[in-house]
Amino acid sequence: MSNQQCFDAVIVGAGPNGLAAAITLARAGQSVIVLEAEATVGGGCRSAELTLPGFVHDVCAAVHPLGLASPFFRGLPLAVHGVEWIQPPLPLAHPFDDGSAALLHRSIDLTAESFGQCDGRSYRQLMTPFVADWEGVIDTFLGPLRPSRRPLIMVRFGLAAIRSAWGLATAHFAGKRARALFGGMAAHSMLPLDQMGTAGFGLLLGMLGHAVGWPVLRGGSQTLADALTAYLRALGGEIRTGQRVASADEIPSAQAVLFDVTPRQLLRIAGSKLPASYRCQLAHYRYGPGVFKLDWALDGPIPWTAAECAMAGTVHLGGTLEEIQTSERLVWQGEPPQKPYVIVTQPSLFDLSRAPAGKQTAWAYCHVPNGSTFDMTERIESQIERFAPGFRARILARSVMSPAALEHHNANDVGGDINGGVQDLRQFYTRPAIRLNPYTTPARDLYICSSSTPPGGGVHGMCGYYAAKAALERTGRR
Fold first, then answer.
1. 3-state secondary structure of 23
2. Where are the domains of the chain?
3. pLDDT of 318-332, one tens digit each?
4. Can you name the CATH fold of 46-106+213-217+289-418?
5. In angstroms, how far is the first alpha carbon of the chain from the final one?
6. Dist. CA 73–CA 402, nearest whole Å
7. In sequence order, which residues have a C-beta less than 8 Å from that of residue 133 and are 6 or more positions away?
8. H runs (alpha helix) in 241-360
9. Which CATH class is domain 6-37+242-285+420-475?
10. pLDDT tens track for 213-224
């Protein structure tokens, strides 16, 4: 590409955040081009036939409560461009060894009733205020640190969210069912459950399960990336795939360049244009655990012992809260867990376009130390077999993605870290560096719009949206 071409804005990377940034700028009348290194757009929101022909698998993100709740996505005509959300009958199931399962229903009351009188009452008291004002919570949570327009509910949410998941679960619930269900949701943080701030992840995902559900996308997660691409092009934006940027000198001239990359890539591409103090902060940015991911083509549904699991789009495998805590703690100590906490999705039960008639797909991952080379296939499949005897007999083919394979597929997954960096209290709002506006850099024309900025990982587009707003404000084109 000739660097003589001139645009108002260039976006490097066509993940959900890069596309969100491009759309925001294009809606403001800017001329925009997106440069994507891979052959397809989407970043962590891609789908492909990873196992056998006719079996469509989500390469990374598969279930999208944040996508449906995102303030940015809610304002886009996604349905016009082919997005259809599918709501499984149950957002989440969490099976136990006795053949029962804790269930997250869309209804708070149904969820609470399954916990018994005491824990049910505690669950209602905990979740009802947040679900009642979920938009206020999500609008504040999905963004940089700033005053909330709903201060009362956010103070209440913040006081609960800042606790450890272990502390909140053991303080509020006496029984294993409620404790384990909450712990499984909190473990999406990829942090030890006794660490401060992990309760917030469990509260947020539980709240969204009741408010908007945990949907999958008909046809695969790629349909969301494709819809964002189609809308951007309708606004006059341009996207070029197979356009890997190795140096800032390769980028067309523009008033603003927004990078949907993590600090490591930003240093490699544009480090020479940044002052030493900012480069030092980026160099010390912390990446978190990686994931080890499996996809299967199956000869039939997963044969869960707890029949209710077949009604859930997502199933958490880890047994008790204590087991999940042990698994996540071992990961942070650099040891692949013997009995990992495993997240399973089974979208083809609810989306017939994902697999041939009578067949199924399944998707799963567990957390591992960053950059781990240990093969977790046997351990993951043993956890599924534990709660679904006969599972292995239904496997027709499998796809295995180690942390290195994930990073090869998407350079932002450094060491297999799918969140763009550790999302603990220390780095939640200070990612990628300590600045009043975290999306800006000391170079006035360079911005970062990836999940390495607030609010972090997840398919929601908010990092890109806020980065684009920062670029518009700096250039005086609101």
1. helix
2. 6-37+242-285+420-475, 46-106+213-217+289-418, 109-209
3. 999 999 999 999 999
4. Guanine Nucleotide Dissociation Inhibitor; domain 2 (3.30.519)
5. 29
6. 31
7. 150, 153
8. 263-270, 276-283, 321-332
9. alpha beta
10. 999 999 999 999
